[in-house]
Each structure stands twice: as C-alpha cells, then as structure tokens.
Amino acid sequence: MGSQQENLPPTVIKTVAKELSCLSKDSIDGIKVQFDDSNLTFITIFVDGPEGTPFEGGVFKINLSISKDYPLSPPKGHFVTKVFHPNVNEDSGEICVNTLKKDWTPNLGLKHILLTIRCLLINPNPESALNTDAGKLLLENYEQYFSRAKMMTEVHAFPETKMKQLLFPSLMNNLTDKENNASCSDGVLTDSSNPNLNENTAGPSAAKQHKSAALTNPTEKARLKAMKEKKRLLKRL
C-alpha cells in the first residue's frame, strides 16, 4: 500500500473503494476512470470533449486528489491536459466549480463530481473565472473564445491519430492507401490457389524486390522524411 494512502483513515479508503466499484459497474458516457487499488489517494479521469463545444474531439486528463476527511470535504481537482476555459487555471489546471467548493455536501460523491466537470465543459461559468482572459472573451466575443479554445483543444487534447490527420492530411491518406495496397498484395502472395506463386520462391523474392524498390524510390524516401518531421513536431506540442 502506498505511503500516501496510509495517511487516509480506513473509513475513507472504504468509502472511495465502494464508489469506484459502483463507477466500474455503471460507467458514465464520455468519461473513463483510472485508479490504483494500492493508492486511492489519487484518481485519474479522462473526459471526452462534448459535441458542439470547442472541446469536441479532445480527450482531457483530470486528476482528483482525495482529502483525509472525505466525504466531509470534497476532492481537489485539476486538469492535467491544457485547456482554455474560464473555470480552469491556465497554469495549474485548478478547477473552480461550486460543487468542489461551497456547494459540496457529503452525499454528492464521485459520480456527481465527474458529471459536474463534464457539464462545465458544456456550460462555462464566467462569473467565477480563474482564467480571466477566457471569461472575458466568453462574455464579449464568443466567436474568438470558441476559436481559441478549439485551437488549444487541437494542440493539447487531440489523440495522436487525429493530430496526425490534422497536421498531415495528405500524408495520412497516402499512408492509408499504401497500407490497403500492401494488404491486398500480402493476400495475393499467400494465396495458395494461385499456381504461379510458390511459398518458398515467389513470395520471398517478391518481398525482397518490394523492399529494394522502397529504399530506392524517391517518393518513399520523401514519405519517411515527412514522418520523421511529423514526430519532431508532435514532440514540441
């Protein structure tokens, strides 16, 4: 058992474990929960950006820190994934929502917190803004707020495959075509019904020729170079 969990009273550990067990059986759409049985001090959740919001398409990682007197006191939550949102501190990721502060009651529980955080992505509250720039834009220029929040989502919250498609659409389409063609070729090479192909001769020979052509083909070299550049770019984000 982790040293941090040892600081939690047994009653708190039991309460959190019971709530997490219920969440595992009755999952919430758009929300995934991860935790370590040996350390229930921290709970990680992944929230899908709701449709129709600037966060759509993104996946946001959020950590919940369980207090020693839970459920008398609420957990502390903060976004690990960077997000442009009035109620999320841009630097620390701290979440400002009444459910985690003055409106908290012991009977609410973890499920209510998860639903509240996802609702916060749908209905931001500029009245209690931790990010004043986001709060001001939301009130005065919604289109600019939407555009900036969407850009942050695309840069920091998009899954890698979607990020690749966004940055290199033509490259990804070419890769998909090549993979499809390769699958078809593999099927022909291993088709025992084709009398012109032999497993010990034609197959390996064709594979060697394909590999040799790939190494000498300028287009293939350019593709490999673009993939390396893509990896460097993704690491900078």
How would you explain this protein's 3D organization?
- The protein is an alpha+beta fold and 237 residues long.
- It folds into two domains: 5-141, Roll (Ubiquitin Conjugating Enzyme), CATH 3.10.110; 160-236, no CATH class.
- Helices cover 49% and strands 11% of the residues.
- The protein has eight helices and four strands; from the N terminus they run H-E-E-E-E-H-H-H-H-H-H-H.
- The chain has helices at 10-25, 109-122, 132-140, 142-156, 160-167, 169-189, 202-216, 218-236, and strands at residues 31-36, 39-48, 59-65, 76-79.
- A four-stranded antiparallel beta sheet has the order 1-2-3-4.
- Strand 1 (31-36) and strand 2 form a beta hairpin.
- Helix 3 crosses helix 4 and helix 5 packs across helix 6.
- The protein is globular, with a radius of gyration of 25 Å.
- The two termini are 35 Å apart.
- The relative contact order is 0.10.
